[in-house]
Amino acid sequence: MKKKILLIATAIILVSIISIGTLAYFTDEEKASNVIITGNIDIELEEWMEDANNDDEPIPFPENGVSDVMPGSQISKIVQVRNIGGNPAYVRIQVEKTIELDDAPGQVPDLDLITFDLNTEKWELGTDGYYYYKNVLQPGEVTESLFTVVTFDSDMDNMYQESTATVDVTAYAVQSDNNGATVFDAQGWPK
Question: Is residue 85 within 8 Å of 136, Cβ to Cβ?
Fold first, then answer.
């Protein structure tokens, strides 16, 4: 009888092991891998000047600037922004003027003696002092020029001799997709 019980127990154990092994064949596994690549915003500030020898093709604005400028002079300086990124963007530009006087201790230069021929049709001065491009700049596109000429007023007197005038231009961009209806509504501007 003990042998019968042992034989029955062994049979039950074998059936259990086979059942467990069979259950392993009924399992399943599935994996999904979804790749999402974000877009990018990338711009390039372009500064050109008219080539005196060729009216059709501008040349890069000289890295060291322009020398021997006299009162009443107009200097060609074409300021544009190119969208080299993969997504449309809103663009704004900051323009800062400085004049470092050579030999006029205690004198404060009049920055209004340097002016620009601003393109107010395509650009608008915001209340924060930035010039905003009114259109969305698509990938590969270039803005209309913010200005093309810098004018040194003829009223500059001897105080401005040998002085150094600097016009610093900084361009910023932010995504236009899902970021306001106009450039003035946009959020997230770089600081």
Answer: no
CA atoms within 13 A of residue 168's CA, in its CB half-sphere: 6
Closest by CA to 140, choosing from 182, 86, 78, 176, is: 86
**46 vs 82: CA distance, rounded Å:** 7
User: CA 154, CA 141: separation in Å to the nearest integer?
Assistant: 37
Residue 11: its pLDDT value, please?
65
- pLDDT < 50: residue spans in the chain: 23-24
Phi-psi domain of 162 (left: phi exceeds 0; alpha: psi -120 through 50; beta: other): left
CA 156 to chain centre: 36
d(CA 187, CA 191): 12
The number of beta carbons lying within 10 Å of the beta carbon of residue 108 is 9
Q: 90: helix, coil or strand? A: strand
**Number of other residues whose CB lies within 10 A of the CB of residue 70:** 10
Q: From edge to edge, which strands make up the β-sheet containing 43-51?
A: 54-60, 43-51, 78-83
Residue with tokens 């990938």: 139
The two structure tokens encoding residue 180: 């306001």
pLDDT digits (tens, 9 = 90+) for 91-119: 999 999 999 998 877 899 999 999 999 99
Indicate the residue type of 35.
V
